[in-house]
Predict the structure.
Amino acid sequence: MSASDALVAAAREARERAFAPYSTFKVGAALETADGVIITGCNIENASYGLTICAERVAMFKAIADGHRHFVRIVVVADTSAPTAPCGACRQVLSEFAPDLEITLANLTQVFAQHTIRELLPHAFGPSLLDRR
Ligand code: THU
């Protein structure tokens, strides 16, 4: 199934709340739980640049902190003419909490593409690989 208009709209709205004075590259994300709750995130930058956190991880960490554990899809929005795909760090975090996640990439007016986290992060490191016995 594809992302609903409401989920795409939520990601676009979240993007407007981005704190991105250094890159000026604003990103919004909207994560949908298995029971239909929408949790949003935006990128939050820091003057110590490396402490910046992406929209996708903000959304996932907000959701986890609020007790959600099952996720269906996430929409990622940037104001670009080509899709903005999650960075490697975000792929790893999304994969841990949502190994079957669908990822929709959009801009302010278009929905570009849909992927799965397994496509974007094949052979992922995960909890089962911590078992060395
Ligand atoms: N960024 C995201 O929030 N998500 C992405 O998928 C790509 C990059 C942010 C991080 C930084 O604040 C800015 O975009 C430029 O890299």
